[in-house]
Amino acid sequence: MRLSTLRAILKRARNVFRKDPDRFLKRTRGVIHVGANIGQERDLYQRHGLRVIWIEPIPEVFHTLAGNLRDYPLQKALQCLITDQDDAEYAFHISSNTGASSSILDLKLHKDIWPEITYDRTMTLRSTTLASLIEREQIDTSLYDALVMDTQGSELLVLRGAVPVLRTFRFIKTEVADFESYAGCCQLKDIEAFLALRGFREVSRHKFAQRAQGGGYYDVVYQRQP
């Protein structure tokens, strides 16, 4: 096969991947989803026949999540706040949109896209790292080769606490902004730099929200390189 033809095939494959940020699910065995909320993607995961571990920190949201998973035998939920520290205490802010934008960080430029979202209250939660949770729950990492994160600005903390097990994941998908949506939050460039040093390369990027003043929100998928 000519080199030019091979490049064209690879370019077409990348374009298809970029148009469908969840295409990677066809190539995975299972998902650990940190920042579950009520498990909105449960039907998507079930269509792919995937095992899923959902992780959600807010007690009442976790209760709803657990109920939503009753008819999904391959999916289970764990109630936990994941950061880069074990047994650390955090002020966790509960958002007005059924907890979907809740975070350990204060809202900042998030309001430029979603001005209607506020924090209703704050509760104290204790954290664990993903590596410690996997060990404690005796999770067989060979069954879960994709990590999905949606933790409203603290995704880099999740990754730092997952370093001992990061090489067990083939794919990492994260929601991330390229501006300071939450005060002191990680941004796209931070995630890129961290994962590049650990052998992960971006294979998909989908913008789903745009800030009028510049910047946006993305779903980005990274794949571990051989």
Walkthrough of the structure:
- It is a single chain.
- The chain is an alpha/beta fold and 226 residues long.
- The chain has a single domain (3-224), classed as Vaccinia Virus protein VP39 (Rossmann fold).
- The chain has 6 helices and 10 strands; from the N terminus they run H-E-H-E-H-E-E-E-E-H-E-H-E-H-E-E.
- It has helices spanning 3-19, 42-47, 59-68, 130-136, 155-160, 188-196, and strands spanning 30-34, 51-56, 75-79, 81-82, 89-95, 119-128, 146-149, 171-177, 200-210, 216-224.
- The strands form 2 sheets. The protein has a 7-stranded mixed sheet. Strands 4-6-5 form a 3-stranded mixed sheet.
- The longest helix is centred in the N-terminal third of the chain and has 17 residues, at 3-19.
- The model has no long low-confidence stretch (mean pLDDT 93).
Features:
226 residues; alpha/beta; Rossmann fold; seven-stranded mixed sheet; three-stranded mixed sheet; 10 strands; 24% helix; globular
